[in-house]
C-alpha cells in the first residue's frame, strides 16, 4: 500500500526519469523499462500511477508546460506596464531551466512527435495559444488594431524559432542573445506605431 502523500512525489520522480531517459536513449527508444531503470523502480509502479507509456509521456510534457507557465506568471506579476509585460514573457521563454540539456532534448522530442500523437498535439496547441494570448493582451495596448494579429504571430514565431535555434546549438546564439533579438523585434513593432502616428 503506497504511503499517504507519496503519489505527487512518485509521479514527479517518474517524470524526471522520463526526461532523463529521452535524453539518454531518444524518444523512440524510451520505454517503460528504460524509465523504470532511471527512476530505480519496478515497471509496475509506472503502470500503477500512469497506466502506460503514453500517459506518462503526456504527463511529462504537461509538467514542462506547467513549469513554463509558472515562469511566465511570475515574470508578469513583477512587470509594470504592457511593454514590460511582453519583455517579461520573452525573458520567461528563455529561462535557464528550459536550456538544461535533458530538457532541451525532451522538448525537441515532444515537438517532433506531436503531429503523430493527438494528446501531445493538444498540449502543443495549448502552449501556442497561451503564448499568443499573453502577447496579444498587451500588444493591443501598444500597436494599431490592424497590426495586433501580425505583431502577435510574428513575435510568437520568433520566440519559438529562436528557442529552436538555441536548442540546436546555433553558433553565437544563446539565451541572452535570443532575448535581445526578440526584444529588438518588439521595439521595432512599437516604433512603427510611433512613426505612423507622426506621419
Automatic annotation (TrEMBL):
Residues 8-68 form the HTH tetR-type domain. Repressor involved in choline regulation of the bet genes. SUPFAM superfamilies: Homeodomain-like, Tetracyclin repressor-like, C-terminal domain. Keywords: DNA-binding, Repressor, Transcription, Transcription regulation. Signal peptide: none annotated. It comes from the Bacteria. This is HTH-type transcriptional regulator BetI. Coiled coil: none annotated. Pathway: Amine and polyamine biosynthesis; betaine biosynthesis via choline pathway [regulation]. Residues 31-50 bind DNA.
Amino acid at each position: 500500500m503506497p504511503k499517504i502523500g507519496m503519489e505527487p512525489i512518485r509521479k514527479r520522480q517518474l517524470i524526471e526519469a522520463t526526461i532523463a531517459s529521452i535524453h539518454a536513449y531518444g524518444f523512440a527508444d524510451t520505454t517503460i523499462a528504460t524509465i523504470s531503470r532511471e527512476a530505480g523502480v519496478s515497471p509496475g509502479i509506472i503502470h500503477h500511477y500512469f497506466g502506460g507509456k503514453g500517459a506518462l509521456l503526456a504527463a511529462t510534457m504537461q509538467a514542462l508546460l506547467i513549469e513554463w507557465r509558472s515562469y511566465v506568471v511570475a515574470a508578469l506579476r513583477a512587470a509594470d506596464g504592457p511593454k514590460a509585460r511582453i519583455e517579461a514573457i520573452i525573458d520567461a521563454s528563455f529561462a535557464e531551466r528550459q536550456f538544461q540539456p535533458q530538457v532541451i532534448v525532451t522538448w525537441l522530442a515532444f515537438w517532433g512527435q506531436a503531429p503523430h500523437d493527438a494528446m501531445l498535439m493538444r498540449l502543443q496547441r495549448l502552449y501556442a495559444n497561451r503564448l499568443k494570448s499573453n502577447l496579444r493582451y498587451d500588444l493591443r495596448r501598444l500597436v494599431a488594431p490592424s497590426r495586433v494579429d501580425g505583431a502577435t504571430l510574428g513575435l510568437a514565431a520568433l520566440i519559438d524559432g529562436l528557442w529552436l535555434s538555441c536548442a540546436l546549438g546555433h553558433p553565437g546564439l544563446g539565451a541572452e542573445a535570443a532575448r535581445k533579438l526578440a526584444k529588438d523585434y518588439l521595439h521595432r513593432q512599437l516604433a512603427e506605431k510611433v512613426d505612423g502616428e507622426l506621419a
